[in-house]
Design goal:
Layout: E1 2-6, H1 10-21, E2 25-30, E3 43-46, H2 48-56, H3 61-66, E4 68-69, E5 72-77, E6 82-87, E7 99-102, H4 103-116, E8 121-123, E9 127-133, E10 136-141, E11 146-149, E12 151-154, H5 161-166, E13 174-185, E14 197-201, E15 206-211, E16 217-222, H6 231-236, H7 239-250, H8 257-262, E17 271-275, E18 283-284, E19 287-289, H9 304-321, H10 325-352, H11 358-375, H12 378-383, H13 385-388
Parallel strand pairs: 1-2, 1-12, 2-8, 5-14, 12-19
Antiparallel strand pairs: 3-7, 4-7, 5-6, 9-10, 10-11, 13-16, 13-17, 14-15, 15-16, 18-19
Helix pairs in contact: 1-4, 1-9, 2-9, 9-10
This protein binds flavin-adenine dinucleotide.
């Protein structure tokens, strides 16, 4: 079975590895020129459920080698009040814990595995159109070329072209009212246990950081903007503009946020944050979407990369075990939809706390210590087991 995979992010590379392991013939098409995409983004978390999915395709060592374990998140208000702390996820019996990894290390590591397994990767191939054909599918690229296959897997991210090809009435992503920006620096006197996160609900901007085992500070911020900035607006902002704006936003708060940004060298970029709670149609004929293309969970959930890996592995098992492609795609949807939509809803709740006015902030700072104390109990961790302890058995046969 020829599997055309569009997009070389976590979903696409994991799908290529999974399809290969399932005995199918994957081909990966990525819009960026070779490695250009690796320069973008800062860092991600891979939760225990994401590690489980990567383990199913023998790729978990990418995260074990380049990532570090992340234990707790400690929350503060912008006034310096400690609001509480919660674990980033459970420590499972097999020692799986949530890990933090640079996006470039995760993508680079997965790409390397794809190349080592001799799976063809074609760069500079931006999908512009796809169509079902009798008994197969055709992908059309911006450079005028096309490719035919038996199934097309749209792993082309939150602005997916495949999603629209499957159903033009599928909605696009929802702007969350927040931006994403981050960087890396070495700043003296940072108060954090290596691996733990500190997150600050500042007066004007949410800020988070963690300290890597080598002492480097990895940080992100979510500056709010009611109006969605256009791509051209974002491109016009220089690193120096962004830094000075961010320092202005963070300066009213107690804590090291403004200092961390001031000490950051190198390029920083601002992107818009989106989520995609639910689309009616995940597949049509021989085309299907996975990862952010199907359901973009906000970065606040820490689950985007993990869910993308899970989708990829479940889809490959369905294609391996069910002879007719449409049956396999329908089974994949039925195995995945409820779970991912539940996690998207959970993640967007977290985002709403990041953009509140004066009264909202005061109420939040009063309520959060209680909420966080409750969330830090073993009972609450057990209640979240459905999310973190999700296990995919690669050898289990998928039944219709
Ligand atoms: C540039 C970038 C930076 C990011 N930075 C962060 C970050 O710092 N922190 C964080 O938590 N999450 C970040 N994310 C999101 C995170 O990687 C995803 O939420 C998660 O890993 C799910 O991955 P995915 O493979 O479904 O989608 P993505 O990671 O978005 O991957 C989609 C891939 O498809 C390619 N693509 C898109 N359109 C086409 C097309 N028409 N034809 C061919 N290829 C196409 C893209 O270039 C990309 O490689 C970033 C994503 C991107 C693309």
């Amino acid at each position: 079975m020829r599997v055309l995979i569009i997009g070389g992010g976590v979903a696409g590379t994991a799908a290529a590895l999974a399809a290969d392991k399932a005995g199918l013939e994957p081909r990966l098409f990525e819009a960026y020129d070779e490695s250009a995409g690796l320069e973008h983004g800062v860092f991600l978390t891979v939760a225990a459920n994401g590690m489980d999915a990567l383990r199913a395709v023998d790729a978990h060592h990418v995260v074990l080698d380049a990532g570090f374990p992340s234990g707790r998140i400690r929350f503060h208000s912008g006034t310096g009040k400690h609001l509480g702390s919660i674990p980033l996820g459970p420590a499972l019996d097999d020692d799986s814990v949530t890990r933090t990894i640079r996006r470039s290390d995760l993508y680079g590591g997965l790409y390397k595995l794809v190349a080592e397994r001799n799976i063809p990767i074609e760069h500079g191939k931006r999908l512009v159109r796809a169509e079902n054909l009798p008994g197969g599918v055709r992908a059309h690229f911006a450079d005028g070329t096309s490719a035919d296959g038996d199934v097309l897997v749209g792993a082309d991210g939150v602005h997916s072209v495949t999603r629209t090809a499957i159903d033009p009435s599928n909605p696009g992503p929802r702007y969350t009212g927040l931006g994403n920006i981050g960087g890396f620096t070495r700043t003296a006197d940072i108060d954090a246990e290596p691996g733990d996160y500190v997150m600050i609900w500042g007066r004007d901007c949410f800020f988070g950081y963690t300290v890597a085992p080598d002492g480097e500070v990895w940080w992100f911020a979510n500056p709010p903007a009611r109006q969605e900035p256009s791509r051209a607006d974002l491109r016009r902002l220089t690193g120096a503009d962004l830094k000075s704006r961010l320092i202005d936003l963070l300066s009213p708060d107690k804590g090291p946020a403004a200092r961390i940004v001031r000490d950051t060298g190198g390029e920083i970029r601002l992107t818009n944050q989106y989520d995609l709670p639910s689309i009616p149609t995940w597949h049509d004929g021989a085309m299907v979407v996975i990862g952010d293309a199907a359901h973009a969970v906000s970065p606040s959930s820490g689950q985007g990369a993990s869910l993308a890996a899970e989708d990829a592995v479940v889809l490959a098992r369905c294609l391996r075990d069910l002879p007719a492609v449409p049956d396999a795609l329908a089974r994949y949807e039925s195995l995945r939809r409820d779970r991912v939509e539940r996690i998207v809803t959970w993640g967007s709740g977290m985002n709403n706390t990041k953009k509140q006015g004066l009264v909202g902030r005061a109420l939040r700072d009063l309520a959060l210590p209680l909420i966080l104390r409750k969330a830090d109990s073993p009972k609450e961790m057990a209640r979240m087991a459905w999310m973190f302890e999700h296990h995919i058995d690669w050898n289990d046969t998928v039944r219709p």
